[in-house]
Design goal:
single chain, 173 residues, alpha+beta, two-stranded antiparallel sheet, 6 helices, 6 strands
């Protein structure tokens, strides 16, 4: 069974307009890709978690994994508070495909699986928490685009796209 990590569903639900992402150049420390309320997410942890999640979803990107790493403590705290979920067949089946999964990978899988069990009001509460959170992301991940529920790279304003052709090409002679 191949399970896709649900990035866009939760991303669209929880992140639209809620993460005040700011460029942090690795939160000022080499090897740091993000900082959430003072908790550092290292490049090494991101790489390892992405590598492990790719065992169940080969197409997952570092940006999608990073978004889940940012969301995980908020989602898992709300799920625990509401006692909304216990490890189920889906979670266990996904976890079995990741030998030696780190605690961080397990947490991300828990958040990704359990968020579906939260009520709309609980998701709104998570949005409120995220809006108040201090979240800085390394600019190499770009910024969050709510239309695509992903981090995207913005083209710097000094890069001008090539002009489109204006008329039919002249026949070769």
């Amino acid at each position: 069974m191949t399970a896709r990590i649900r990035t866009s569903v939760l991303g669209a639900t929880l992140l639209v307009g809620s993460l005040g992402l700011t460029a942090c150049a690795g939160a000022g420390r080499p090897g740091t890709v993000a900082e959430v309320n003072g908790t550092t997410i290292s490049a090494k942890a991101l790489a390892k978690t992405t590598e492990q999640i790719r065992l169940i979803d080969p197409k997952v990107t570092e940006s999608a994994t990073l978004a889940w790493m940012i969301l995980t403590p908020f989602v898992n705290a709300k799920v625990a508070e509401k006692q909304a979920w216990l490890p189920d067949e889906e979670y266990n089946a996904r976890l079995e495909q990741i030998p030696g999964a780190t605690d961080l990978t397990k947490g991300v899988l828990q958040a990704n699986t359990s968020v579906a069990y939260l009520a709309a009001a609980d998701k709104e509460d998570i949005l409120d928490q995220l809006a108040k959170a201090s979240v800085q992301v390394d600019p190499r991940f770009g910024s969050f685009d709510p239309d695509r529920a992903a981090f995207v790279m913005k083209t710097p304003n000094w890069i001008v796209p090539p002009a489109a052709p204006t008329g039919p090409a002249a026949p070769a002679q």
